[in-house]
Design brief:
Strand content: under 5%
Shape: globular
Number of helices: 23
Structural class: mainly alpha
Strand order of the largest sheet: 1-2
Low-confidence stretches: 1-22, 26-30
Largest sheet: 2 strands, antiparallel
Helix content: over 70%
Order of helices and strands: HEEHHHHHHHHHHHHHHHHHHHHHH
Length: 439
C-alpha cells in the first residue's frame, strides 16, 4: 500500500516540514544520474535509521562516482533508494531515477548475477508503479537467468494477482515458499488464501510472516499492519487494534499504523481522535490514501469546503504520481465516486483499468460498485460475479450481492446476504452500507 508529492497547502496546515534535498550529489555530463536523498519528516522510523541511511547513501554515491564500472555499487544504491521510497512515501521523486539507475546496469555488460538483481529490482519498482504487465515481463526475463531464487517469484505472484491470473499466482507462490519460507513468501501465501476465501488460513500465514521478520523493521511492521487489517476486514476489531498498537510500539510514528488506528477510532465513533491521528499520519508522509480518508470524513461531517479543498489537493497528488509513471486508474475512480459524486467519471477511469486487467477482482469490484450507484443493476451483477469468482468471503462483496439481489426482486434473499455481511463484520463500512442497513 502509497503515493505522491504535491500537497503543499495541506502540509503547511498540518505543520509538516518542507521537503528539501538533504544530500544532492554533484553531477557532470558523464555521471550516472542519481536521485537526491530527500529530508524526511521528523520521527519516521527508529532512532538512528535515517542517519544510517544518509551514511550509506553518501558512501555508495562516492563509490559510483569513483568507479563508473562498479555495478554492484549502483545496485546497492538503487536498493537503498527503493527502501527509502517505501519508508518516506516519496515514490514520485525516487522511482524514475531508480529505474534509470537500474537500466544503466542492465545495459552495461553486467555479469549474470548483476543482471538478475537489476531485473528483480526493476520489476519491483514497476509493480510499485502499477505497471503490472511490464513487471511480469521483466520478472519473466529475470527468472530465465536464475530460476532458483525466491524473490523473483514474489514479483511474479504480485504481477499475476494484479492481472487477475490467480492460478498462476498460486503456482508462483508455491515455488517461492518451497525455495525460501520467510516473511515475503508467507505474506503472499496469506494474500492468496484470503482471495480464495480461506480467512483463517490467511491469518495464520500472516502471523508466520510477522514472526519471521525482525521487530521494528519496516517490512515486519508492514506485515503486522496487514495482519491487523485482515482482522479488521472480518470484524475482529480488538485483534486489529492490538496489531496496530504492536506495530507502533515496535516502530514509533509508523504512519500506516497511525492511519489504521485513525480508521478504527472513526469506526467506533470517536471522530475527534480519528481526525487527530489522521492529521499526524498525513504530516509524516504524502500517502494519498490518508488524504482520501480525511476528505471523506470532512464530507460526512457536511464540511463541503474542507472536503473540496482536500479533494483538489488529492487530484494534484494523483496527477503528480502519473507524471512519474504511476498508473492511478482505480484511485481516480474512488475519488470521483466517493468524494465528487461523479459515477460517470469514475466509470471512465475504472474501465481504463478493466481494459488492461479484466480478470482482476478488485477492478471488477470497483466496476460493480460504480454500476450499482449508477443504477445499472445488470452490469453491477455481472462484474460482481467476476469479483467473486475466487469464492472470496469479503463482507463488502456479500453486502453488495445482497443489495443487487434485492434490486432484482429477490428482496428476502438479499436481506439474508446483507445480514450475513454485517454478522461477519459489524463495523463494515462502504459506499452502499447505509443503504443496506436500511433495507
Amino acid at each position: 500500500m502509497k503515493n505522491v508529492l504535491l500537497y503543499a497547502l495541506i502540509m503547511l496546515a498540518s505543520g509538516v516540514l518542507t521537503w528539501q534535498c538533504q544530500d544532492t550529489p554533484p553531477q557532470t555530463e558523464t555521471d550516472v544520474a542519481i536521485p537526491a536523498l530527500l529530508e524526511r519528516s521528523a520521527g519516521i522510523g527508529p532512532d538512528g535509521e535515517l542517519a544510517q541511511i544518509r551514511s550509506m547513501y553518501r558512501e555508495l554515491v562516492s563509490k559510483v562516482r569513483a568507479d563508473p564500472n562498479d555495478l554492484n555499487a549502483r545496485l546497492n544504491l538503487a536498493e537503498l533508494l527503493m527502501q527509502e521510497a517505501r519508508i518516506s512515501g516519496e515514490h514520485g521523486h525516487y522511482y524514475p531515477g531508480i529505474l534509470t539507475l537500474l537500466e544503466t546496469v542492465v545495459t552495461e555488460k553486467p555479469n549474470p548475477a548483476q543482471k538478475y538483481r537489476a531485473l528483480v529490482d526493476k520489476a519491483s519498482v514497476q509493480m510499485s508503479l502499477h505497471q503490472f504487465e511490464a513487471a511480469r515481463a521483466t520478472a519473466t526475463e529475470a527468472v530465465q537467468i536464475n530460476p532458483n531464487e525466491a524473490s523473483i517469484y514474489g514479483v511474479l505472484v504480485d504481477a499475476n494477482v494484479e492481472l487477475g491470473h490467480y492460478e498462476q499466482a498460486v503456482e508462483m507462490a508455491d515455488k517461492m515458499v518451497s525455495i525460501r519460507p520467510d516473511i515475503r513468501s508467507y505474506s503472499r501465501i496469506s494474500y492468496l488464501r484470503e482471495i480464495y476465501g480461506q480467512v483463517t488460513g490467511a491469518i495464520d500465514a500472516m502471523k508466520l510472516a510477522v514472526s519471521a521478520g525482525y521487530p521494528g523493521m519496516e517490512q515486519t511492521e508492514w506485515a503486522r499492519l496487514n495482519l491487523g487489517q485482515l482482522y479488521l476486514r472480518y470484524g475482529m476489531i480488538d485483534s486489529a487494534r492490538l496489531q496496530f498498537q504492536l506495530a507502533l510500539s515496535a516502530r514509533p510514528n509508523y504512519p500506516f499504523a497511525i492511519a489504521a488506528m485513525a480508521g478504527l477510532e472513526a469506526l467506533q465513533g470517536r471522530q475527534a481522535e480519528a481526525d487527530r491521528l489522521m492529521d499526524q499520519a498525513c504530516a509524516l508522509i504524502p500517502e494519498v490514501g490518508f488524504f482520501v480518508e480525511k476528505a471523506k470524513w470532512e464530507k460526512e461531517k457536511g464540511n463541503a469546503k474542507g472536503s473540496g479543498a482536500l479533494t483538489k489537493e488529492i487530484l494534484a497528488m494523483l496527477a503528480d504520481d502519473e507524471q512519474s509513471g504511476h498508473m492511478m486508474g482505480l484511485e481516480y475512480a474512488r475519488v470521483y465516486l466517493d468524494l465528487l459524486g461523479d459515477p460517470q467519471k469514475a466509470l471512465e477511469y475504472a474501465l481504463t483499468e478493466y481494459r488492461t486487467r479484466p480478470d482482476n477482482i478488485d477492478v471488477n469490484r470497483s466496476l460493480a460498485t460504480i454500476y450499482y450507484h449508477s443504477g445499472n443493476i445488470k452490469l453491477a451483477g455481472e462484474h460482481l460475479q467476476k469479483a467473486m469468482r475466487t469464492h472470496s468471503r469479503s463482507p463488502e462483496l456479500t453486502c453488495l450481492e445482497g443489495l443487487i439481489k434485492a434490486k432484482s426482486g429477490k428482496v428476502s434473499d438479499g436481506r439474508i446476504l446483507i445480514r450475513k455481511a454485517f454478522t461477519a463484520n459489524l463495523y463494515l463500512e462502504c459506499s452502499f452500507c447505509n443503504e443496506a442497513k436500511a433495507l
